Structures are given as structure tokens and as C-alpha cells.
Amino acid sequence: MLDDVRLIVVGFGLMGGSLARAVRPKMRGVIAVDADAATRNAAIESGIADAAFATIEEVNVSADDLVILATPVSAIIDTLNRLTVLATEGCMVMDIGSTKWDICRTMNGLPGWFQAIGGHPMCGKETSGFAVSSADLYDNQTFILTPTVRTTPYLKEVALALIAALNANPIIIPPKEHDQTVALISHLPYLLSATLMQQASNIANGTDTVWHVSASGFRSMSRLSGSSPAMMRDILLTNRPAVISQLLRYQRELAAVVEMVNDGDRDALVAWLEEKQAQHTHYQQIKNNGTA
Amino acid sequence: MLDDVRLIVVGFGLMGGSLARAVRPKMRGVIAVDADAATRNAAIESGIADAAFATIEEVNVSADDLVILATPVSAIIDTLNRLTVLATEGCMVMDIGSTKWDICRTMNGLPGWFQAIGGHPMCGKETSGFAVSSADLYDNQTFILTPTVRTTPYLKEVALALIAALNANPIIIPPKEHDQTVALISHLPYLLSATLMQQASNIANGTDTVWHVSASGFRSMSRLSGSSPAMMRDILLTNRPAVISQLLRYQRELAAVVEMVNDGDRDALVAWLEEKQAQHTHYQQIKNNGTA
Question: Which of A73, A222, B74, B119 is most buried by its number of CB atoms within 10 A?
Fold first, then answer.
């Protein structure tokens, strides 16, 4: 099925580049679209892309093409709007952006001859760019699909075949539920990490002792603060209500923790600490085995 | 120098067991002290300890011995108090507990024929016990020493030789400064991680979607929530003022972040996100190269 399909990857960075690396042997061909000339050269020189262009306007998009939109969210929406003018016979479109409601709403508004589905692979790194892309980035990771009114059974099959080629694990959930869940599981954690990095930087204030003392715990907790600003900007602007809701809830939870530590009640503290450890074990069991 | 010294490790778990594994070939001998019978058996059967006892009272402690206290903080203080009765000719003592002020104050009160120094290796895992110990746990990690009034030049030399044998990197800082720095770099991050785990567990509420959607970002941010409750209890009880101070500061920083996300000012958001990424890069450079 995939060998009938030409892949056009818009945004040939960490996510788009890694996807192309992994599925290239199974596709009819791969076209890279990226504004950055060095990335386009690397895409060609690595043999991952057959051709590379600066804009989607330069590509002769046809109905058999699967266009993968792998840029920050605002650029995905912009490209979707440009496609309506460009691909007069339509095409298949899937995005891999971090929030889904705004994108899927735009997909719903595409002319009826387009096939479109939202996607969100739950993988990434705290670095970005084609140079750090790798064929195993999606391996064994969760890949969310969010259907739209433009999702045909054929496109769904193609999307599932692509996910299978990536060796990723598909989950299908509606766009709204997606955005609420990732606000908790991804966007809130980013903001907590970035806030911690800010606090540590303010206290370090140019001296290095804080950093030398820091160890693996701080490394884990600060890792997300290195995420791409352009990606996070669009995430926070397109998923604001859900993010704010999770932040407010976290503030309430944290206020209770401050009170508990301040009280210094040994038994209450131990009960809470043991409950957290048990919750962590439960989460790990589900991730490791697929069941609790 | 170390081959004159017999090591008595009280608490033969992840930290104590890993230390013994790494330095055993260089010492005159290794004695394990652990309340858990299975741990004592494993210590002997693995060949890491020459003998194992349930309590320090059963060991014939002498002035040439280096007693390493590797239990939670409250048990370290308890053992220090028992040593004053037990080791009538004194001995060398070093602890590797997570907070230093309460312990070093107790060390200051030891009779003058004791030699004592505080220690804190900045490594660990989110699991505990001798079963998960490994000889490379301390490899290339920061190992803090906090001198006391009972720290002799000889003990300091022995401690540095031990740290060299672990292939760890020593830093010497006063106990108070240690406790304030780790409140920021270790205890606050634990509480943030545990609070996130609590929030996610409450929202998941028995269903698995949240966990299936979760990926490496959540894994990093929730890892510390699996830390040993007994260890964290003593940390939070013995470093309460510094932890509260960091929590209150974090609450203020987070309130400003909530306001910024709520405002949705694109330029302000981008400036903040870029600053966080730059701070993360700066921190990584210091960790990787030792300088910025």
C-alpha cells in the first residue's frame, strides 16, 4: 500500500527527518520541503529525500501524495490553507503537530476532494533539526491519530500502514480529548521544567556551584526546558485553555504539598510519599506491560 | 592508604552496596551492617562483604575502621549517637546522607577521639536496595564533602582517596550551603515530580489513556516520584526551612508563568522560551565541559 504513495515531508527537522529516514524504503519516493537551505542539502546528500524544495508551492502535489506536515502548529495551519489553492485535485494530508484542535478544525474546512487526518507521535528530543534525526525515533512509541471529517477509510489505512512502518503504536482519540490529555502529560511538564530552570538560573546567578552540585535528578527535571521555542510557542498559544486549567490545578496540588511539608507531620508525610511511589510503580507497569 | 583501612558500611542498599562494590579491591576488608537478613546474605554471597551483621553493636569497631553511614538521615544520626558508647577508642566516620546540617551538628558533638566528615554523593536511582547496586554508580559523579570540627587532615585524605577510588569528583562545601543548594537542585525537583505524578494519577483515575499517551517527557518529569519514601521523609524533615523557601519561590515563579501563558502575548512568550532554552544550554555546557 505505501509503495503507491509518494511522501512529501514539510519541515525536514528532527520529527519529519526521522519519519522519512524510517519509512523511506517502503514509499514510492520522498520529497523534502524545508525553508533552510542547509537542511535541504543534507536531505539530498543523505539520500533520504529524492528532491528538496524551499516551499510547498514548488512541489507538483497530486492526489496520490501523502503530505506530512511536520512544522510547528502555526506553520501547519498556514500550509493547510495554502494547499487548498495549490492542490486542485486534492491530496492526502497528515500533520504531526503537538496540538490537534486548531489543526483538525482547519482540516475540517478543506475542500471535499482532500483527505486529511491529524497525527501526533509521542516522541521527540530536547534538541531539534535534521542533524539529530534518527530512523529509530518512533520505534515502539505511541502515535496518536485524531480523525477529522476529511478522514476517509483509505487515508486511515495509509496512516496505520505508515505507523506500522515506523514500528510505532497507534491510538485513535478525538482532537479535543487529545489536547486536554497532552496539556497534562506534556505541556504542563514542559512549563514545570522551564520554571525550575529559571529558578535555578536565578539562584546560580553566574556562579557554577549550583550546576556542579546538580545531578541526575535535576538533569531529568530540567531536560524539557531545552525544547524548541517555536514549537512550544505554538503549543502554548493553540492549547491555552487546557494548559491554564492544568496549571491552576497544579498550583492547588502544590499548595497542599507546601502545607504538608510545613506541618512536618511524619506520618502524613510518609503516607503521601508511599502513595507517590505506588503511583509511579503503577504508571511504570502500564508503560512496560501495557496493563497494570 | 586505603589498604590500611577496613570499611564498615551501615546500610547495604543501593548507595552503600554500590560504594562497597566499587572500592572493595582497594580496602583491607568490607563489613556489611544491615537490618535486613536477605541483604546480609546477598552481601556475603556476592563476595562484596567479608562479614555481615544486623547491628553496629555486633561489630568490633576500632580506630582504623572507616564507618560509612549509608542509611536515611534519621538512622545515621541514631547510629552516630550509638557509636559514642560503642567505639571507646574512636574510629573514622563518614556518612553519605542526603542532608548535612543535622548530621554534621551531631558529628561536631562526638568525643574528640572520633574523626568524622559529612559526605553526599550526587548520584542515585529511583529504585533502592542492594539488588540494584552497581560498581559504576559513582563513576564520574559529583561527591560533596562537608567538613566538621571532627574532620582531621588524615580523614580528609582518606575520604579523598575513597572518592578517587570511586572515580567521583569531590567538592568541599559547608553543611549549611550544601543543604540550601540541594533544596533547590534535588528536594524541590522531587516534590515537583511527585506533585505531577499525583495530578496525573488523579486525572487518570483508574483509566489507562493518560498513561498510554504519556511519553519520554512525562517519564523524565515523573521519575523522581519513585524515590524511596524513607529517604525522602528524612530529607524533608531535616531540611524543612530550605525546602519551604524553595517551594515558596517556585510558587511565585509559577504564578508569573501562569500569567504569561494566560496573557498569550506572542513576543513575551517567545522571549521567555528562548531564555529557558539558553539557560538549559548553559547548564549543559557546564556539566559537559566543567566550564561555560
Answer: A222
* Rounded CA separation B140/B47 (Å): 25
Contact B269/A236, CB-based, under 8 Å?
yes
Handedness of CA B33, B139, B167, B148 (dihedral sign): negative
Any idea what the CATH number is for the domain that residue A45 is in? 3.40.50.720
Q: Which of A142, A173, A204 is the last residue of a domain?
A: A173
Residues A13, A56 share a domain: yes
Q: Are residues A133 and A210 in the same domain?
A: no
Residues B150 and B184 in one domain: no
Q: Do B196 and A190 touch (CB under 8 A)?
A: no
Q: Are residues A268 and A132 in the same domain?
A: no
* Residue A84, pLDDT above cutoff 70: yes
- In this complex, the residue of B123, B190, B251 whose CB is nearest that of residue A216 is B123
Are residues A11 and A36 located together in one domain of the fold?
A: yes
For residues A34 and A66, give the distance between their C-alpha atoms in angstroms, rounded to a whole number: 16
Distance CA B40, CA B38 (A): 5
Per the structure, how many domains does chain A have? Answer: 2
Question: Across the interface, which of B123, B203, B221 has its CB nearest the CB of A189?
Answer: B221
Are B211 and A287 within 8 A, CB to CB? yes
pLDDT tens, position by position, A67-76: 999 999 999 9
Q: What is the pLDDT of residues A134-175, one digit of tens each?
A: 999 999 999 999 999 999 999 999 999 999 999 999 999 999
Is residue B149 domain-shared with residue B182, that is, in the same domain?
A: no
Q: Are residues A9 and A118 in the same domain?
A: yes
Residues of B with Cβ-Cβ distance to A224 under 8 angstroms:
217, 220-221
- Answer yes or no: do A211 and B141 touch at CB < 8 A: no
Residue where a domain stops, chosen among B154, B173, B192? B173
Structure-block grid coordinates of residue A105: 478544525
Read out DSSP for B67-119?
Answer: EEE-S-HHHHHHHHHHHHHH-TT--EEEE--S--HHHHHHHHTS-TT-EEEEE
pTM above 0.95, yes or no: no
ipTM: 0.86
Which chain B residue has the Cα nearest residue A243? B261
Distance in Å, alpha carbon of B31 to nearest chain A alpha carbon? 29
* Pairing status of strand A115-121 against strand A142-147: antiparallel
Question: What was the pLDDT predicted at A292?
Answer: 42
Q: Are B180 and A109 in contact (CB under 8 A)?
A: no
For B268, name the nearest residue in chain A, comparing CA atoms only: A233
What's the gap in Å between the CA of B113 and the closest CA on chain A? Answer: 31
Instruction: Look at A213 and B182 and tell me if their CB atoms are within 8 Å.
Output: yes
Range of the domain at B264: 177-289
**In chain A, what residues touch B220 (CB-CB under 8 Å)?**
189, 193, 220-221, 223-224
